[in-house]
């Protein structure tokens, strides 16, 4: 075993400063430094290098102790993490609603026991918009490092005892991990991103270079200084180019993570005397940022998260600047007043106390999650917020998606809800997510009018409930046709179902929403399956509606066409204040949308639907427009409660409000 044993490297702390600066800049201004997230990959290489060097040195001298190694890790990592988790729990208690505090509790638990990556793997992807609303999103990388620290010392010790070639062991493990990363990146991108098995190759890159005793042979023939300088400059360029060129929509880590990992490796291998390492990375201010990089990494994302919450989602330059300034000051205070003092403490019970404290905080987080975020803290605000930004099936007794899907042979993967699973369905609501938001209100209304009717709602998000049409953001991908065919086949073959309600957000598929027009964006492409040469959405939709109605009417079903609600061009949080504490008012003073604008935007889809339905007088038409719009405005709020949970979906109150005004009694046979 030949370990590359060097004294303290200030340039590596400088490299840490580069890594944390990239991550903070990306989180603060993701559209400016689109690839700043690669700072985490640089951290992985540094961690793999330093930990391997520490362990291997001790193994080489025969002084390695598992107990001492893990005690040092606890002293190094736990103090700052305890402070951040505790601060999040306390601030969350006073500033967050139950629906925000509950997942925070879950993420505090995950962070405390170092399984954040697995918790997040089951939720939205790292780059999804909803990830902005997770105060501890960034702890996934810390969890992967801790999982590495847990296993790697054992592997190294066994390999040394067995006299194995460590270069070969590390190389094989790294290649297997990288191969799995490449193989599964396209089919399981979220799992690959958060899984230690598919990310550990980056740490093993650092582990590998810890055993490189001198500069690589292929560069022989040039002076040592020239080689060092070339490597350090090239390494910085690789990191800089990755941070500038990559973006959140790129498949990552995939092969792309090789570039920042290679850059970090070249900088480390170049040595502390290389020109870039000495002049830039070794500069005192840069080294200092590196020294506080760990607490800075921990503090920055919660600071931005709570800044977003307190500013009513208005992250302007002042809020962002204040959050970053707070993060730097908090990191410096944590480093000097907490971390250094704890590390220098002679008491042998400190690691045990820290371990118990972290587990205790994790337990509190778990209890907050189990208590559903303690909703009794702000009862009045919770009532208002219930209809904004979320759609809670659980409180209303419709938590039967899995059982419903199983009952229908697992053919409808997105939405499947039934009023009563013990009785056959008599009315079917078919459609996309905007049909889904009508279910709760319709179910409540049908229950009022009938004891025998049973509503089932089935469908798939982003898919019109029609034959011979497919909707996708990728024109080459078929995602709706089979689901819709299975859905209609089920309805046709169910003699108990006498009425079918069709509903969808047609204007979205025809790119006629306010957002699409304002941003000149094409969110969906619809195509005809039988006539792929057609490129007119109006004609494609008209043909699909006719074919679907013909099939349903031929099977003796009554049909109701439920038109979609007007879309907003803002989120309800922009006009409804649901914050216990805020430093800014809402973005908008009104939740209304100009009726003329709404009519103009939706004219194409609505005109096409009414034109087609003139040929089907037996089909009933329900139009929610008149329920939320007057002659001048369309209202997002009624009776001081938001109708909408987002730009195009109703909340629970909105679903009830619309259903109360629909002629639901005409559907029942009682």
UniProtKB/TrEMBL annotation:
SUPFAM superfamilies: SGNH hydrolase. InterPro entries: Acyl_transf_3_dom, Acyltransferase_3, SGNH. The keyword Secreted does not apply. Keywords: Membrane, Transmembrane, Transmembrane helix. One of its GO terms (cellular component) is membrane. Residues 11-335 form the Acyltransferase domain. Residues 411-661 form the SGNH domain. GO terms for molecular function: acyltransferase activity, transferring groups other than amino-acyl groups. The chain crosses the membrane at residues 12-29, 35-56, 77-96, 137-159, 166-185, 197-217, 229-246, 252-271, 278-297, 317-337, 349-368. One of its GO terms (biological process) is lipopolysaccharide biosynthetic process. This is Acyltransferase. It comes from Rhodoferax lacus.
């Amino acid at each position: 075993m030949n370990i590359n044993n060097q004294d303290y490297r200030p340039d590596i702390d400088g490299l840490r400063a580069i890594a944390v600066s990239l991550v903070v800049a990306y989180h603060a201004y993701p559209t400016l430094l689109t690839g700043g997230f690669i700072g985490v990959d640089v951290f992985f290489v540094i961690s793999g290098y330093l930990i391997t060097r520490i362990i291997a040195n001790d193994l080489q001298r025969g002084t390695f102790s598992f107990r001492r190694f893990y005690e040092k890790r606890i002293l190094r990592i736990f103090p700052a993490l305890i402070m951040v988790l505790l601060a999040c729990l306390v601030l969350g208690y006073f500033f967050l609603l139950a629906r925000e505090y509950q997942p925070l509790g879950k993420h505090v638990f995950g962070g405390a026991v170092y399984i954040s990556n697995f918790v997040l793997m089951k939720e939205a992807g790292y780059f999804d918009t909803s990830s902005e609303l997770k105060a501890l999103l960034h702890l996934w990388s810390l969890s992967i490092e801790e999982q590495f620290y847990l296993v790697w010392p054992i592997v190294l010790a066994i390999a040394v005892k067995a006299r194995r070639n460590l270069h070969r062991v590390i190389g094989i493990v790294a290649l297997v991990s990288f191969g799995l990363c490449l193989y599964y990146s396209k089919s399981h991108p979220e799992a690959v991103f958060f899984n230690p098995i598919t990310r550990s190759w980056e740490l093993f890159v650092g582990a590998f270079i810890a055993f490189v005793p001198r500069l690589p042979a292929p560069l022989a023939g040039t002076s040592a200084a020239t080689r060092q300088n070339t490597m350090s400059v090239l390494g910085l360029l690789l990191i800089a180019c990755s941070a500038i060129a990559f973006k959140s929509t790129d498949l990552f880590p995939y092969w792309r993570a090789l570039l920042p990992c290679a850059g970090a490796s070249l900088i480390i291998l170049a040595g502390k005397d290389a020109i870039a390492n000495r002049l830039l990375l070794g500069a005192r201010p840069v080294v200092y940022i590196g020294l506080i990089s760990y607490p800075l990494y921990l503090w920055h994302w919660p600071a931005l998260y709570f800044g977003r919450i307190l500013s009513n989602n208005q992250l302007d330059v002042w809020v962002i600047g204040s959050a970053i300034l707070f993060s730097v000051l908090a990191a410096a205070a944590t480093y000097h007043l907490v971390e250094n003092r704890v590390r220098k403490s002679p008491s042998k019970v400190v690691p045990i106390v820290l371990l118990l404290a972290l587990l205790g905080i994790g337990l509190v987080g778990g209890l907050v999650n189990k208590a559903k975020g303690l909703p009794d803290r702000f009862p009045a605000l919770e009532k208002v917020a219930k209809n904004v930004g979320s759609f809670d099936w659980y409180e209303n007794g419709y938590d039967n998606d899995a059982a419903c899907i199983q009952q229908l042979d697992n053919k409808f993967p997105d939405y499947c809800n039934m009023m009563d699973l013990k009785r056959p369905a008599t009315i079917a609501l078919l459609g996309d997510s905007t049909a889904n938001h009508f279910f709760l209100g319709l179910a409540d209304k049908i229950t009022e009018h009938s004891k025998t009717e049973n509503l089932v709602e089935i469908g798939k998000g982003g898919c019109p409930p029609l034959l011979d049409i497919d909707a996708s953001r990728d024109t080459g991908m078929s995602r709706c046709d089979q689901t819709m065919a299975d859905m209609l086949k089920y309805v046709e073959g169910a003699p108990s179902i006498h009425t079918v309600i069709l509903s969808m957000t047609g204007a979205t598929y025809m790119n006629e929403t306010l957002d699409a027009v304002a941003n000149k964006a094409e969110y969906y492409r619809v195509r005809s399956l039988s006539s792929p040469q057609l490129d007119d959405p109006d004609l494609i939709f008209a043909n699909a509606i006719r074919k679907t109605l013909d099939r349903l009417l031929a099977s003796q079903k009554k049909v109701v066409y439920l038109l979609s609600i007007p879309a907003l061009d803002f989120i309800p949080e922009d006009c409804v204040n649901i914050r216990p504490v805020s430093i800014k008012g809402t973005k908008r003073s009104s939740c209304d949308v100009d009726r003329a604008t709404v009519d103009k935007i939706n004219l194409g889809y609505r005109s096409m639907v009414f034109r087609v339905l003139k040929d089907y007088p037996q089909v009933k038409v329900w139009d929610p427009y008149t329920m939320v719009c007057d002659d001048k405005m369309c209202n997002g709020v009624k009776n001081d409660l938001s109708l909408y949970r987002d730009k195009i979906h109703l909340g629970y109150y909105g679903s009830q409000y619309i259903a109360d005004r629909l002629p639901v009694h005409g559907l029942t046979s009682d």
